[in-house]
Q: What sequence folds into this?
């Protein structure tokens, strides 16, 4: 009986658990020292990732910018 020949592949040190984007990256914005998550593909922190202001429904928070 030589059925022990097949070697299965099991999770080990050779296979990374998940794809990361580099360790110790910080926000791309000058002055911002927020450390990015290794799972965050963006180059900036969540605050500076995109300059998208949520469209608040109802009254605006700052009427002067309306
Ligand atoms: Zn930032």
A:
């Amino acid at each position: 009986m030589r059925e022990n020949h097949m070697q299965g592949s099991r999770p080990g040190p050779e296979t990374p658990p998940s794809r990361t984007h580099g360790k110790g990256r910080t926000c791309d914005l000058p002055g911002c020292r927020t450390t990015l998550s290794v799972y965050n593909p963006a180059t900036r922190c969540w605050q500076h990732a995109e300059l998208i202001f949520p469209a608040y429904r109802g009254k605006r928070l700052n009427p002067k910018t309306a």
